[in-house]
Design goal:
Elements (H helix, E strand, L loop, with lengths): L1 H8 L1 H4 L8 H14 L2 H20 L27 H10 L4 H13 L3 H5 L6 E2 L4 E5 L6 E5 L2 H9 L13
Antiparallel strand pairs: 1-2, 2-3
Helix pairs in contact: 3-4, 6-8
């Protein structure tokens, strides 16, 4: 969040004294994040900045918390997301027919229900064919996840060239 905030502010503002930051800077950042990501993620960014600026106040680097007065955005009442239909999944898999790596990522997403970034970072160390499991740590939550390795994924993995390096990525 801090990296995104400083990138948003730009070099000219980042190199200034912390005291020059304003509540409006945080609010503009929140709005920018809401356009790029989601309202809930933008609100999370504000909460993180409240904690960081609060710590700066505690350490007497600032006299007031620049994020404390920034209001959180109201979240949408209904999620616009929905599950893919079977027809959509078939079309996606058909589009990936000639690209084994993307086909594998789609299959892993379908059967494991994990974020694309987590799946793309999977290494062979995560695969436990003996126990029929895939074990990894989700990047966003930091949680260790153990999921069953269903037959279509076992078949996909078995068709890939074997690697002697357990740290090699499944989807390089």
């Amino acid at each position: 969040v801090i990296e995104r905030f400083t990138d948003f502010l730009g070099d000219a503002k980042v190199t200034r004294d912390l005291a020059t930051l304003r509540e409006s800077d945080v609010a503009r950042f929140r709005d920018h994040e809401a356009k790029e990501l989601s309202r809930s993620t933008a609100n999370l960014c504000v909460k993180v900045l409240r904690i960081c600026f609060g710590e700066a106040v505690r350490r007497k680097l600032l006299t007031s918390n620049r994020a404390a007065g920034v209001k959180l955005l109201k979240s949408a009442k209904e999620s616009k997301r929905r599950a893919f239909t079977l027809a959509e999944i078939k079309r996606i898999l058909k589009a990936c027919k000639h690209d084994q790596e993307w086909r594998g990522l789609v299959l892993f997403g379908l059967y494991l229900g994990q974020r694309l970034g987590d799946l793309a970072r999977l290494t062979w160390r995560a695969v436990d064919l003996e126990n029929g499991e895939i074990v990894f740590t989700a990047r966003k939550t930091g949680r260790r996840i153990v999921l069953p390795l269903v037959q279509p994924l076992v078949e996909y993995l078995s068709a890939l060239p074997a690697s002697d390096n357990p740290n090699a990525h499944i989807f390089p």
